[in-house]
Structure formats: C-alpha cells, structure tokens
Write a structure and sequence with these properties.
TIM Barrel; 2 domains; eight-stranded mixed beta sheet; five-stranded parallel beta sheet; binds N-carbamoyl-L-aspartate; binds zinc ion; Dihydroorotase
Length: about 450
C-alpha cells in the first residue's frame, strides 16, 4: 500500500495541517503525521492547497454500455478523478438501459476495474425508461451494485400512478427516486427556455411551469406515501420556492443544481451554438440568482454535474439538430468556486457539504463524503484556489468535447485526488491505476 505525507494543506480552507495517508485511511494528522511517516512515504508538494473530502457526483452520464463513442466507464471516471471526484453515480439511460441487476452489476464492475473512482450505478425506475412498467428495483438494490438511487433521467416519470408505486417501493430498500422534472406535453419540440430570447429567436420554448408542476406534484406524492424524493437539476426560481415550501412542511425532499445553471443563462442561445443546448434549458438571470440563493441557504442540497457527453457529430451541427447535454466533471469545482465562493455566498466547508457530504448521504454511499479526520477512508482532493486558467477542451479527459466553457477563464485547479488512499491525480495529472480486485 502506498503512503503519502501531505504537508501544510488547508483543511476546508481553514488552518493548515499535515495529513498522513496509509493503507487506504487517514493514518495521522497534525504534528503526528510527519513523525509517523516512514522514510518511504511520498511527499508531493501540497503546501497551501485546500483539502476537501473527495467529491461525490449524484448525476453522471458515463454512456457505457451502448454509447462508448461518447464516453466509457474508464474515460468518464478518469475525467471525474481529474475533477476531484472519488465517487460518481452513473445514470441509467444507457443502451441497454440499466433496468436490471445484470446491467447495474456490469457498470459497477467496470468501475471497479477502472479504479479511478467508486461507481454507484443508478437503476432505472421503469423498464426501458418507457414509463409504463416498474423495473426490478428490489433486485437492483440487493445486487452487488447495491443500488439506492433510481431514476429515469433523460425522461420524466410522468404517470403519477407509476411515480407513486416507485416511491412506495423504494422505501423498503432505503432508496430514493431522482426525478427528471419535465412535463412532456408542455415541452413537446422544446429547444430552449420559454421566454424573451426564445420569442426573439423563434425557437420553441420549455416553460418553467413544465418543471415546477412536476416538482409540486412529486413533493405531494412523497408526502402522501412517506418516501424520499430527489429533484434532479432544478433550474427555476419557482422550483426553489416549491422545494423550500416542501422542506418547511417536513417532506423528505432533496434537490440538486448543476454548475451550468449556477453560471449560464438563456442569453447563450443567441450564439446558436448547440454546446449551450441542455435539459433543463439554461434559464434567466433571475433564475440563476434564485438557485444561487437556494444553494446558499440549504434549500438546494447538492451540486451535481449532469455530465452529459455527446460525440462531435451530435453537437457540431445546427441548434435544432443538436443533442441536449454538456460535459461537466472537469469544470464543476471551478464553476462552484467562481459562482459561490468568490461571491462570498459559501465557504469551502459549504462546498464540501454540497459536493461531497450531502450527495454521499442521499446516495447512501459509505466511506465517502466523510470529514478528513484520522481513521476515515482516504478519499480526498487537493485544490489550488489561486490558479486561474482558460478551459481548453483539448486538455480534458472526457472522451467528448461538449463543454460550454471553452476559452472561458475559471478559477481553481485540482492538483491531487486520492481514492482509497491511492493517488488518481498527482501534480495535476492523472496517475495510471492498477485494477482494483479487492
Ligand atoms: N441533461 C441533458 O441535457 N441530457 C442528458 C439527460 C438528462 O440529464 O436529462 C443526457 O443523457 O444527455
Ligand atoms: Zn435529466
Ligand atoms: Zn442527466
């Protein structure tokens, strides 16, 4: 087992300390760390870096099986490690769909073999994401993949009876339904947010109410059956209000916002560049302000990437023909630093909560999102918050290039990531992984 002595890191941005990682755990901290380190311990240059618990993504599209031209479990998890993640939840909209124990175990195994991060497969709610028959939720939960998050993401579970059954079912496995809130009839042919920009451009709009009406229905269903609901990629001011109301009422609802909904607005569509085409669509500046406020006050629990890689032929085209989705694993932390830390709305401790502790808790992931104290698993990432550089899609490790931030300067850089005590990233570069068989 490797041994690493991390000198003078800033724990959650606070005071500096030394950490000794050995045998997969944090073996010592403070003045004990250097004393207990053996002569063989590696000593990367870490002085002044911010130490965060390894980031946990509740919403990643890894595209395997089926769309290995866009991403694979290996390439997507390597990109995740480069972004500071030690765990990702792999969405179920693959081909075949992850709606059986067999498929979720396959994805889980591919994650183990790649060894970059812990891969927690998400199970589909309905067979084939068709929204008609409930998938084998119990078998996925008790499989080796131990699925706890179920979602038809990409599609909305719009039948209220199916949604009710799914919510009832997951209670017995301590699971959660993660809903892609999009009323399908209100969004037929939609190309972007419905508002002044869509009117000017003559593009069919996706009104805020198409998201809000589903969230309102679902929090009431969750209350009625007493189950856990998670709202995927919430994007409007009205959605924040509904979740705030539901939490105030004691309903067990959690919500996520993506980095792109914290930073970008529907004005980006004026470029007709399909890299800005995403579901839910980029909204107004008022919505951006509302999701920032909701994240800061705890209404929104989690920042999740919704990393949605697409091959160049699906993005290098006219707006109407472009696929929905953007990559996000390698830029999530810089966007959160810019929009929430540098604006004074959140501390690094808050960042650790929304990008690590809360998603780990919602996904019921043991050993992730833990405080960086002696005895805990050594899942952590070290960030240089003073770095600033333009995003270069050619430098990114995802197999796809559809980042909306190309050429934009963002702050912060992940310098090192440790997964179960082993480095996956050192000095800003990925480290070759041995196959994990344990
Ligand atoms: N976000 C997107 O625009 N696309 C996602 C699906 C989804 O998250 O709804 C995809 O799988 O490409
Ligand atoms: Zn979605
Ligand atoms: Zn998604």
């Amino acid at each position: 087992m490797s041994e690493h002595l991390l000198r003078e890191v800033r724990l959650l941005g606070e005071g500096t300390t030394d950490l000794l990682l050995r045998d997969g755990v944090i073996a010592a901290a403070g003045t004990d760390a250097a004393r207990e380190a053996s002569a063989a311990a590696q000593r990367p240059d870490t002085a002044g870096l911010v130490a965060l618990p390894g980031l946990v993504d509740l919403h990643t599209h890894l595209r395997e099986p089926g769309r290995e031209d866009a991403e694979t479990v290996a390439t997507g998890t390597r990109a995740a490690a480069a972004g500071g993640f030690t765990c990702v939840h792999a969405m179920a909209n693959t081909a075949p769909v992850a709606d059986t124990a067999g498929v979720v175990e396959q994805v889980w195994r591919l994650g183990r073999q790649a060894g970059w991060v812990e891969v927690r497969p998400v199970g589909a709610v309905s067979v084939g994401l068709a929204g008609v028959h409930l998938a084998e939720l119990g078998a996925m939960a008790t499989s080796a993949a131990r699925v706890r998050v179920f979602s038809d993401d990409g599609k909305c579970v719009h039948d209220p009876v199916l949604m009710r059954r799914a919510l009832e079912y997951v209670r017995s496995v301590d699971g959660v339904i993660a809903q892609h809130a999009q009323e399908p009839r209100l969004t037929e042919g939609a190309q972007m947010h419905e508002g002044v920009v869509s009117a000017e451009l003559g593009l069919t709009g996706w009104p805020a109410v198409a998201e809000e009406s589903i969230i309102a229905r679902d929090v009431l269903l969750a209350e009625h059956v007493g189950s856990r609901l998670h709202v995927c990629h919430l994007s409007t001011a009205g959605s924040v209000d509904i979740v705030r109301w539901a939490k105030g009422r004691g309903i067990e609802v959690t919500a996520e916002v993506t980095p792109h909904h914290l930073l970008l607005t529907h004005e980006a569509a004026r470029s007709y560049d399909p890299r800005y085409k995403v579901n839910p669509p980029l909204r107004t500046a008022e919505d951006v302000e509302a999701v920032r406020a909701g994240l800061a006050d705890g209404t929104i629990d989690v920042v999740a990437t919704d990393h949605a890689p697409h091959p160049v032929e699906d993005k290098d085209c006219e707006w109407d023909a472009g696929a929905f989705g953007m990559t996000g694993l390698e830029t999530a932390l810089p966007v959160v630093q810019q929009t929430m830390v540098e604006t004074g709305r959140m501390t690094w401790a808050d960042v650790a909560r929304v990008l690590s502790a809360a998603p780990a808790r919602i996904g019921r992931v043991a050993g992730q999102g833990r405080p960086l104290v002696v005895g805990e698993p050594a899942n952590l990432t070290l960030v240089d918050p003073a770095a600033r550089r333009p995003v270069d899609p050619g430098e990114q490790l995802s197999r796809s290039r559809n980042t909306p931030y190309a050429g934009r300067e963002l702050p912060g850089r992940v310098m090192s990531t440790f997964h179960r005590g082993g480095p996956t990233v050192l000095d800003g570069a990925p480290v070759a992984r041995e196959e994990v068989t344990a």
